[in-house]
Amino acid sequence: GRPSAKAAVFDPTVPGTRPRLGHLHPITQTAEELKDIMGRLGFTVAEGPEVEDPWHNFEALNIPLDHPARDPLDNFYLAAAERTLGQAAEQQGWLLRSQTSTVQIRVMEKTRPPVRIISVGRVYRPDTADATHYPMFHQIEGLLVDRHVTMADLKSVLRLFAQSFFEDDVHIRFRPSFFPFTEPSVEVDMSWQGGWIEIAGAGMVDPNVLRAVGYDPEEVTGLAFGVGIERICMGRHGIHDIREFYRNDVRFLHQF
Fold first, then answer.
1. Closest-CA residue to 211 (of 183, 186, 185)
2. Domain containing 118: what range?
3. Residue 14, in any domain of the structure
């Protein structure tokens, strides 16, 4: 007769294999947590374009035409855009933004004080890739403009920011520095691997920046800061090389 088909062996009592679920990249996780921290401090999120014109990336931030920060070796100018848009683009010098401070200018152009915002996004600088530098990285930028804002407010905000993210297990220090768009200016370092690593530039908004957007520096003052998201993520998780974030190695990414 016809051979009987053998039934497949199936045991419904055996536990199934749970598939691995996808999850957010560690940089995205860090950015979302930082937004939540700053939201609790009263800051709202603002966004802006990654391709900028010189006015928002330089002039409005008190960086004049002859400033070395505008050098083609320090920025990604868009030759393709110049060919597409013609002479107007060539004169304007479109570029990938070198800082998220450009968003501050766009917000202040359209908003009267008080202003309390953060902007989070990618910025681009032609740095040589090494353990702590990469030509594309992420920043969170904060801006507070109101009456009677002082340097003490800036230090308080940054200390709360760091302590909330690292749960008090971090020391930060402030070093005098110079930035065209803040005066006075400081660099902010955090303790890392037995030493210090710079995580932020900050200061009081320069009066020229306030005037550029139509604010009266006799009436209002402001604080501003920019924090490197990769660096504070490295500090929390003990990562020694920023390039790990961009190698797409699932053995690394599955740890988060």
1. 183
2. 26-49+98-254
3. no
For the chain, 256 residues long, give each residue's pLDDT as a single digit of tens: 565 556 567 788 888 888 877 788 999 999 999 999 999 999 999 999 999 999 999 999 999 888 888 888 888 998 765 555 544 444 558 999 999 999 999 999 999 999 999 999 999 999 888 888 899 999 999 999 999 999 999 999 998 888 888 876 778 899 999 999 999 999 998 877 778 878 889 999 999 999 999 999 999 999 999 999 998 898 888 888 999 999 988 888 888 8
Asked, for residue 139, whether it belongs to a domain, the answer is yes
Residue 207: which CATH number?
A: 3.30.930.10
Q: b/e per residue, 159-185, with b = 16+ CB within 10 A?
A: eebbebbbeeebebebeeeebbbbeeb
Asked, for residue 2, whether it belongs to a domain, the answer is no
Residue 218 lies in a domain: yes
| Helices and strands in the chain, H and E counts | 9, 10
Joined together, the tokens standing for residue 20 give 């691995």
Contacts of 212 by beta carbon, 8 Å cutoff, 6+ apart: 59, 60, 61, 62, 105
Name the amino acid, one letter, at 169.
D
* Domain count of the fold of the chain: 1
Q: What is the dihedral angle through the alpha carbons of 143, 54, 211, 153, rounded to the nearest 10 degrees?
A: 20
Q: 132 φ, ψ to 5°?
A: -125, 5
User: The tokens of 11 are what?
Assistant: 């045991």
Backbone angles phi, psi at 120, to 5 degrees: -125, 130
